[in-house]
Amino acid sequence: MNPAEQLNLYLALGALLFVCGVVCMATKRNAIGVLIGVELVLNGANVNFVAFSRYNPAFEIEGMIFALFVIVMAAGEAAVALAIVLNFYNNHTTVDVDSAEELKG
Amino acid sequence: MPENELQPGLLFVVATLLPIASFTILLLWGAIRWALRPYASDNATVKTIFEGLGGAVPGQAPAYVATAAIGLAFLCSFAGFCIFLAEVGEMHELKHKLDHAKLHPGHHDDHDHDKNEKAKHNEQKVDKAKDAKGEEKKKVDAAKQAPRNLQGEYNALKNRWEGAWDWARVFPKSTHDSARGSILQIGFRIDMLAAVMFVMVTFIATLIHLFSIGYMSDELQKEVEDHEVHTAHGHYHRRGRFGRFFMFLSLFCFSMLNLILADNLFQIFVSWELVGICSFLLIGFYFERTSASNAANKAFITNRIGDAGFIIGLLIFWTYFGTFNFQEIFARVRAPEADSHGAIKLGKESAGHKIVRGNLVKKYPDGSASIKVENGVGDVAFIFPRETPGHFDAPRLGREKYAYHDPAPTQYGYIPYWLLIVGGLGIFLGCVGKSAQFPLQVWLPDAMEGPTPVSALIHAATMVAAGVYLVGRCYPLFTVEVLLTIAYVGAITLFVAASIAVVMTDIKKVLAYSTVSQLGYMMLALGVGGWTAGLLHLLTHAFFKALLFLGSGSVIYGCHHQQDMLKMGGLYPKMKITALTMLMGVLAIAGTPFFSGWYSKDEILAGAFGFFMVNKHHFLLFLLPLVTAGITTFYMFRMWFMTFTGKPRDEHVYDHAHESPWPMTVPLILLAILSVGVAWGWPPHEPSHSWLGHQLHHYSQPKTVEFGDLVDDHGHGIPVDVDFVAENRSALENHAIVGFLALGVVGIGLAFALVLYYYGVLDPEDAKEQFPGVHRFLMNKWCFDEFYSAALVRPALQIAHWCRNVDTYAIDGFLNLVGHWTVLTSAWSGRFDRGIIDGSVNLLADVSYAIGSWLRNVQTGYLRSYILFLALAAMGVWILLYAWASALGAP
Known about the structure:
The complex is a heterodimer of chains A (105) and B (891). Chain A has 105 residues and is mostly helical. Chain A has helices at residues 3-27, 31-55, 60-92. The termini of chain B are far apart.
């Protein structure tokens, strides 16, 4: 198996993770479930970055660094999102995202 | 005169200012009470002040203030009069010497002007001229020495009795005389006439104030019921107006005194209007009565006609003479007696104090002209220098004289002679209105609607006499033609008014017509050159007519405001003081020997007779006053007999009649004494030796009267010979004849009155039935009101009606049409605005709104749908990119 075929496998895995994440975000009514979906999307992207870093010498460093950035950002995002969820719960006594419809146009 | 010495003339100024002070106090007092009245019931402090000022009920205090003011004014005037009497002799003597010195040549200076400084100024000029002459100087100085001292003394004395203050600068365009000509002044100048008038006016006014305290006592009530005003709820009720009455009286007294005090025409005009407005206010004192408010309007409007003439006169004289000051105008219009060469002569006659006329020979572009001097004829009259230059030459007969278009004070000018006549007639028209002369006499009888003391003070003794006074004041301004007009107007008035008085039954109307008639006598006297006689009659008439009016007031008060003599009769036992004092007045007005009226009326008739002897075709000017003397006696005795003798005609009035209280009878007695004796002199049987008449004649009569005027002797112009010298001589020679004639006529009048109204031998009713046409004609007052109504009022109303129609149909119609068009146009414009402009803007907004509404459907608010949209959009973008890339042929 040549490197291009190996890269395509990784990219397929990343796409699968990404789609799983999006479907999870779009279908879950529980806010925690949505957050899990977000994590899946981010990690799908990470798999791509790492795969490009491994198989394309031009992205050797940049892929690693981007992956690390995404992990850090995901951590921050998780903290902020959980805080929002917590506050949302305090106000609505639920974590059902469908009840957050005050911004409806 | 030392600067700090007080002028005694200021006594008269103080006398003038006292009533205005009283007026101001009463006005403020009334205004404060009026302002406080609405709040007096709410606020305790306001109530205290309100009560302190007299409260709701009118008090007598205003009467005390006004009476005290006018009483003090009388004392001031009397004191001033006494001082003036003491000085006038010396003043006259000095003036005489000065004139004499001027008439005889030998020195060059002419001090024919008023101001001390100006005299000095001129002397300096003359002195400079003389320095050049060198040797002559000493000689001239020696001759000059005496008159210079005389002049100084004379000026010092004269300055004690006159003064003037600048009031306003107005700078008329056409005068070079910027020093004085453009300044309006307030000033006073006391001569014998003014001094005597002051004493007369203040004295009578004081008595009338006193009388009014009694007469107006009805007004002291909190609520007065006016029996002559009917409303839906019975008689009209109003607050008493005691204070207001005295306030108006005070204003009137100020105006009248200011009129006498004035040394210039403009100040007189201002006072003239002020007395007019006081007359208006007081005639309309009971203004709720239609008759009173109509009478007030009538008086005021009729006077406006006269005042229009007055203003025309003022404008003419102001334009040509550039000054309103009497002395300055007279100096302009009348020739001085002497020029630098001695007495001025025109041919053989002296030109002094005369109007000098001539014909234009050449007119220059700047308006100045050469004028050929004529004797008593010519289109233009000379305007003389007001201040004589160092050396000046008078016009010489037949020579040419250069006259400026707009003369400086030291220059000659000229005025078209007809303008001099128009100006004189204009001033006289003012006097005609104020003194109720034909043809403006209609207002005075109606003016009797005012309270009786007002009739006595304003419409008998003082204000209506102001017209006569002004004619007397402006005497040198009047040309021959104007004087003849004055004489005829007077003659017509005195006869017309007397004939109406014969049939009147309202006691006040009889007196009103008698006043008009007597004023006619005064005008006649002035017109025929009897200056002294006319003004003496003014003074004597003031006393006896005030007495008669106050007497009638006392009768009216005693009979509970009954004025109709047909309801009176036999009142003598009930009101003896009133009856006897009124009898004195009746005797005086009838011209009974040794009563004051005799002295003045005899003089008037003598003057008229003198005029008639010189101008035989003017016989009416003697005949009318002579006949009217008899008529006067008749109607005055008729009035007295109808009121006080015979049987009572109305028991109700008779039963309630009573004598009036002392504030009313005391003035009657004082006035009766003066009505008898005010004109006495020594010896008393000579009417021409009246002391008062002598004072006026000697010290105040204008020189014009003595010398007459230059009149053409070739029969040009109007046929009158104003040879006052010949007239006066004739009057003097025929005095006895005239006196007896007058007495005879008076006797006939008295006899008629006795026969008809005392003994009742003939019944007046029979006479009435015998001549119903005449009676009706006289009762209708010669149909003057009807004539004016038909000739003036109704045409004016008709024209007004037409004007209104033009307004309503033509002008309003056109305006309405234009308006209609405008409305139509705006309707179309509105439709365009709303349809097209608003429509397009609205459409834009609607479209935006619709798009917005549709787009908000996307904003579901559900997180999941947003993510779905995101995912779908990302997918869409990817598919598009892919399609695009493959279209470009990328791998």
